[in-house]
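Supplementary Note 3. Input sequence used for the single-chain structure prediction.
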Amino acid sequence: MITLPLILISLSVALNVQLWLSDTQGLPKVRLLQAALQEQQNENAQLEERNQALAAEVSNLKEGVAAIEELARTELGMIRKDETFFRVLESPPPALSVTRE
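The predicted structure, written as discrete structure tokens, is reproduced below.
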């Protein structure tokens, strides 16, 4: 009669040890999944911010003439008819001469 409770207790202990300490299941797996979930949530938040910025830019391009003009100037290099475009080039630094002695 003592053997049945002893068997049940040892079986319960063995299952709990496997549940809590096993690499494929248990606490280590839960911790890995929680870390992966947190990383995915961070990435989703960054992508959501990016999507909002892109949506604002699209809305601005659809509604605003100033945004279209700015984009044409910066991306396509366009200028107005009455404007003069000056391009300032930096001169390269003078070459260092190497003397051999």
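Residues 8-76 form one domain. The chain has three helices and no strands.
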